[in-house]
C-alpha cells in the first residue's frame, strides 16, 4: 500500500513532468500572448567568434561543450553539430576562453588567437586511473543520499540574476514547422529555497507554419520555465526526495573528468515493481564535493498509454498520440566552490495515428536553455506584471527574423545547420512578402 507521502510525491512528480515534457495538443487555435516591448540595448562594443569543438583524434563534434571567458561569468555552449558562437566584450579581448567537455581535458584558448569564423578547437580525451581516487564509495544508495544532504554546501545559496538564451523547435518529419528563440532574464532562487525561479522575457521571435501541422494546432507549454524545472537539484521532485530515492536502483558505473575534476558516473533505473519510478539515466558526481555536475535521463515510454497519459494534456478527436522517446540533460557550472545551473535540454519524439489517414505523423519537440551571464543580486524577484507565466505559450513574432543583428551583444546558441536553413527560409519568405 502506498503511503500518503508516496502519493503526494507522485502527484508532485506528475505536475513536474507535465510541465517538463511541455506538450499539449489542441483541436482549436488559441489566442497568442504578445511579446513585451524589447528593452534598449547597451552601447557596449563586442567581437563575435564562430567555430566548432571537436575530438582531437576522431574529429567528431563535441556537442553541448561549455565555452566560458576566464575571469567572467560569460559563457555559451556548442550546439548538436559541435558549433559555437561567442560574443566577447572589447574590454575582455585580452582574456582566454576555457573549453570543457565530459571526459576531455580542458583547453584554454586566448581570445587574441581566434578568427572571426571557422575556428577549430580540439580537445584531448582524458584517461582516468583508479589510483587517482582517494575514496571509492561502495554503497551507491548512501552516495546519492549524501549528495542530497550536501546540497546546501555545494550549490548557490544567494539569489542570482541570470541572462539566458532559450530556443524551442517543433519538427515534423525532416522539416521544422515551428521555431522560437528568446533572451530572458532569470531570477534564480537559492537552492535551499522552496520558492520557484522567475523569468522575464527580454527579447524574442517565433515563426510557425500552421499549414504543415496536420489539422491541429500543436503548441509547447511552459517555455523557459520548463528548462528551469530540469534543474534537478533545485526541483528534486522526480528522484531525489527521500521517499522517491527508494524506488530506484543506483550503480556506480565508472569514473571520468569534467572541468579537470574527477567525477563518479552513477547510473540509475527503476526498481522492479516500482510503479512511481519513471526515469533512468546517469548522474555525474564530483568526487570531492559530492555535487552533481551533470545529469542525463530518459523517461520510460515503453508503456505507450501510460506515457501518453502523463505527457499529452489534450488531443483532438480521431487522433491517438504516443510518445516514443523523451530525453533530458542538465549541466552545472562551478565558481568559487559553488555550483549553479548552466544548461538544460529536453527532447520528445512522438507519433500521431489518425483514424482516417493511411500514414502516421511523426514529430520531434526540442527545448534548450543556456545561461550566458549572471551576477549576484540583492533585488527582489521580478514584479508579477513583468514575469512570464508558468503556462506561457510563446507567441508568433516573425519580424525579428528579418534583422541579422537581432540579438545584438547577447550570446546565443549557434543554430544547428538544419535550424540555420529554417531561419534562412523564414527570411526569404519575409523578403518576398
Description of the molecule:
- With 433 residues, this protein is of the alpha+beta class.
- The protein folds into 2 domains: 47-123, Carboxypeptidase-like, regulatory domain (Immunoglobulin-like, Sandwich), CATH 2.60.40; 153-400, no CATH class.
- The protein is built from 7 helices and 19 strands.
- The strands form 4 sheets. Strands 11-10-9-19-18-17-16-15-14-13 form a 10-stranded antiparallel β-sheet, with helices on both faces. The chain has a 4-stranded antiparallel β-sheet with strand order 4-3-6-7, with no helix packed on it. Strands 5-2-8 form a 3-stranded mixed β-sheet, with no helix packed on it.
- The chain starts with a helix and ends with a helix.
- Residues 1-41 have low confidence and may be disordered.
Secondary-structure blueprint of this entry?
Blueprint: H1 4-21, E1 23-26, E2 46-55, E3 66-69, E4 75-77, E5 83-89, E6 96-100, E7 107-110, E8 119-123, H2 140-149, H3 151-154, E9 160-172, E10 175-188, E11 198-208, E12 217-220, H4 224-229, H5 242-245, E13 248-258, E14 261-270, E15 279-286, E16 292-299, H6 304-311, E17 319-335, E18 338-354, E19 361-376, H7 417-432
Parallel strand pairs: 2-8
Antiparallel strand pairs: 1-12, 2-5, 3-4, 3-6, 6-7, 9-10, 9-19, 10-11, 13-14, 14-15, 15-16, 16-17, 17-18, 18-19
GO molecular function: carboxypeptidase activity
Keywords: Carboxypeptidase, Hydrolase, Protease, Signal
Signal peptide: 1-31
Amino acid at each position: 500500500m502506498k503511503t500518503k507521502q508516496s502519493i503526494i510525491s507522485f502527484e508532485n512528480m506528475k505536475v513536474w513532468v507535465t510541465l517538463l515534457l511541455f506538450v499539449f495538443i489542441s483541436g482549436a487555435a488559441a489566442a497568442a500572448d504578445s511579446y513585451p516591448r524589447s528593452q534598449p540595448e547597451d552601447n557596449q562594443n563586442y567581437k563575435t567568434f564562430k567555430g566548432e569543438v571537436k575530438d582531437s583524434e576522431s574529429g567528431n563534434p563535441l556537442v553541448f561543450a561549455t565555452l566560458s571567458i576566464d575571469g567572467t561569468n560569460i559563457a555559451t555552449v556548442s550546439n548538436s553539430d559541435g558549433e559555437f558562437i561567442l560574443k566577447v566584450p572589447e574590454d575582455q579581448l585580452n582574456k582566454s576562453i576555457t573549453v570543457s567537455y565530459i571526459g576531455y581535458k580542458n583547453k584554454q584558448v586566448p581570445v587574441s588567437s581566434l578568427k572571426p569564423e571557422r575556428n577549430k578547437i580540439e580537445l584531448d580525451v582524458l584517461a582516468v586511473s583508479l589510483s587517482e581516487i582517494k575514496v571509492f564509495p561502495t554503497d551507491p544508495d548512501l552516495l546519492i543520499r549524501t549528495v542530497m544532504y550536501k546540497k546546501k554546501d555545494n550549490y548557490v545559496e544567494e539569489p542570482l540574476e541570470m541572462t539566458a538564451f532559450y530556443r524551442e523547435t517543433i519538427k515534423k518529419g525532416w522539416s521544422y514547422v515551428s521555431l522560437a528563440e528568446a533572451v530572458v532574464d532569470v531570477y534564480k532562487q537559492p537552492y535551499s529555497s522552496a520558492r520557484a525561479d522567475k523569468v522575464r522575457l527580454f527579447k524574442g521571435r517565433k515563426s510557425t507554419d500552421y499549414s504543415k501541422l496536420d489539422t491541429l494546432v500543436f503548441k509547447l507549454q511552459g517555455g523557459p520555465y520548463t528548462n528551469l524545472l530540469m534543474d534537478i537539484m533545485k526541483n528534486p521532485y522526480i528522484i531525489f526526495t527521500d521517499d522517491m530515492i527508494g524506488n530506484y536502483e543506483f550503480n556506480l558505473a565508472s569514473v571520468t573528468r569534467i572541468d579537470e575534476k574527477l567525477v563518479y558516473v552513477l547510473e540509475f533505473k527503476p526498481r522492479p515493481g516500482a510503479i512511481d519510478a519513471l526515469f533512468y539515466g546517469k548522474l555525474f558526481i564530483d568526487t570531492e564535493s559530492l555535487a552533481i555536475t551533470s545529469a542525463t535521463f530518459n523517461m520510460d515510454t515503453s508503456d505507450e498509454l501510460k506515457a501518453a497519459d502523463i505527457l499529452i494534456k489534450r488531443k483532438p478527436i480521431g487522433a491517438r498520440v504516443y510518445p516514443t522517446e523523451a530525453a533530458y540533460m542538465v549541466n552545472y557550472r562551478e565558481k568559487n566552490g559553488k555550483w549553479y545551473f548552466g544548461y538544460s535540454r529536453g527532447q520528445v519524439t512522438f507519433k500521431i495515428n489518425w483514424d482516417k489517414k493511411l500514414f502516421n505523423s511523426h514529430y520531434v519537440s526540442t527545448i534548450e536553455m543556456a545561461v550566458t551571464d549572471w551576477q549576484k543580486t540583492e533585488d527582489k524577484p521580478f514584479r508579477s506584471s513583468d514575469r512570464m507565466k508558468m503556462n506561457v505559450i510563446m507567441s508568433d513574432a516573425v519580424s525579428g527574423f528579418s534583422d541579422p543583428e537581432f540579438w545584438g551583444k547577447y550570446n546565443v546558441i549557434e543554430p544547428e545547420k538544419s535550424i540555420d536553413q529554417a531561419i534562412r527560409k523564414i527570411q526569404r519568405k519575409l523578403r518576398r512578402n
